[in-house]
What we know:
The complex is a heterodimer of chains A (227) and B (406).
Chain A: E1 2-15, E2 18-31, E3 35-39, H1 46-53, E4 61-66, E5 69-70, H2 76-86, E6 87-90, H3 102-113, H4 118-131, H5 147-159, E7 165-169, H6 177-194, E8 197-202, H7 205-210, E9 213-218, E10 221-226
Parallel strand pairs in A: 3-8, 3-9, 6-7, 7-8
Antiparallel strand pairs in A: 1-2, 1-4, 4-5, 9-10
Helix pairs in contact in A: 3-4, 3-5, 4-5, 5-6
Chain B: H1 2-11, H2 13-53, E1 56-60, H3 61-65, E2 76-77, H4 79-86, E3 92-107, E4 110-119, H5 121-124, E5 134-137, E6 146-150, H6 151-157, E7 164-170, E8 176-187, H7 192-195, E9 198-202, H8 203-210, E10 215-216, E11 218-223, H9 229-239, E12 244-248, H10 253-291, H11 293-301, H12 306-341, E13 344-345, H13 347-354, E14 363-364, H14 370-387, H15 389-396
Parallel strand pairs in B: 4-9, 6-8
Antiparallel strand pairs in B: 1-11, 1-12, 2-10, 3-4, 3-11, 5-8, 6-9, 7-8, 13-14
Amino acid sequence: xxxxxxxxxxxxxxxxxVDVPALRGINLSIEKGDLAAIAGPSGSGKTTxxxxxxxxxxxxxxxxxxxxxxxxxLSPDQLAEVRNQHIGFIFQSFNLIPVLTAFENVxxxxxxxxxxxxNARRKKVMNMLAEVGIAELANRKPxxxxxxxxxxxxxxxxxxxxxxxxxxxxxTANIDTxxxxxxxxxxxxxxxxxxxxxIFSTHDPQVMEHARRxxxxxxxQVESDER
Amino acid sequence: MFKLxxxxxxxxxxxxxxxxxxIAFAVMIVIFLWTFVSGILVGMFNNYxxxxxxxxxxxxxxxxxxxxxxxxxxxxxxxxxxxTTLEQDQSVKLATGRIKFGVLMDIxxxxxxxxxxxxxxxxxxxxxxxYQKMISGKMFAAGTSETVVGAGLAxxxxxxxxxxxxxxxxxxxxxxxxxxxxxxxxxxxxxxxxDNRTFYLPLEQAQQLLDIEGRVTEVFILIKDPDKAVQVxxxxxxxxxxxxxxxxxxANGFLFYMMTIIKNIYGAxxxxxxxxxxxxxxxxxxxxxxxxxxxxxxxKALGMKEGxxxxxxxxxxxxxxxxxxxxxxxxxxxxxxxxxTVGIDYTAAFKSIRDVExxxxxxxxxxxSWLTILVGFLLGVLSSVLASIFPARRAAxxxxxxAMRE
Lengths: 227, 406
């Protein structure tokens, strides 16, 4: 079963009067339970692809389907709703809200979701923080944590609402190799334990080894797709 | 959401503090100025009202037509009964007879027109500002042949308290008549045109002098709510005998015009001050929004909608504006309290300008009002929120893809 699917997706950027193609006809379906790495050199279209998978942007041609919703037809607020309900995000520079504690950062998407009351939220957040191994840091602010700890908070934030899939944009780029491995192990563990679908972008060969599906792209096209 | 907004306000403490300070300062200045200016306005209004036009005056219709001539031929007859009737009216605070007449006085060989006002000192004791404005001597009592003279006039005539003022004028029937009045006191209202050319005397003395016993030139009325003078005057007008008319203060074009103009000018000044202060909010919120481009992008990526982002930014401005306006209102209250009780003393300033030796007291007091403080506070909050609209929109329209950018 596919959680997100691209059909002949194209993305062109206009730089001045020049038309720059970033993606040229991508056909790709991410299946439930995938741990997929999107790899490619910089400028290959990784980030653009992730933006489309993340409903952060719309394709200029072709289609993107999330649970049978055609993203192209949705308004910005409807897209926000889709992101809120279906997608978790992990950013390369963690992107936590600096004025909120670890607990509050993880709670944030649940508040936006407006489904749970305070008690239910608290339970979910604490479970999730325990799951990523930083329950004792719940009351720390991002500035009081290491890069690895911050990324664990970010993972907890992405997973706490049990999204259909999680997008991770070079999740280990800003942390040292050892911590990076720990983070990847954590994502693998979550993938196996909770069945969470992960899509992450990387250009680090070591990271690719952890993936169970490796999608290589070059010049805006899929070069290879191996399981 | 409130927690997040509050912490965002506290994020850059110094910047928020300085921004808040400018809002607080603006609110304080507005409250202070407002209090002060309305004090002066109320003072001006009361002076003008109690000394000349009242809230309403009942006049002879012919008198109204030739008012500048102060015609003694067109008076109000049987005024005692009129006063008794008027005082039954719930909205009337005071009704009393007055006689205004012109006198030419000889000052160093030149004729100077002077205004004599006959009043009932007992009836007017609670309203007429004169009682508090005596700079020497005291107010005359009813039934005496005494007078009080404006400070400027007394000086020109070379008279002081205890001296005798001789008044010679034409009666209502055209014959000459004279009167010697003992000067019981000298007053200064701080209005040059009054102080330099007015004297007051007991009503019955004026009636005698002018040969108009049982009559007055006007029935002077003060009512409970001056803003309703037009309606009340219309009501009174219906009950009056033919030949008499009731004139509200608003009919005095000059006073009404002045009050309106001054209020409008100051209204514009308050808005301008707050506008300046709200520019600092605008600037601060724009800076805060631009700095947080990626963070806002991230929040949108997590599913926050445009409206929610906009509200967050507006909420931050609201918190900052409310706290700052609260501080400003507190400071403004203190200032307003000071200026309305102690007042600002202009004596020194006036002395140097006008070279007056007599100890005039030109102290202006503000009109303290909680409403002014409340409105000042609300204006501060409102302008903060309005100033945040543009930055909030900017934030709401930011692209979620910003979150992915390194």
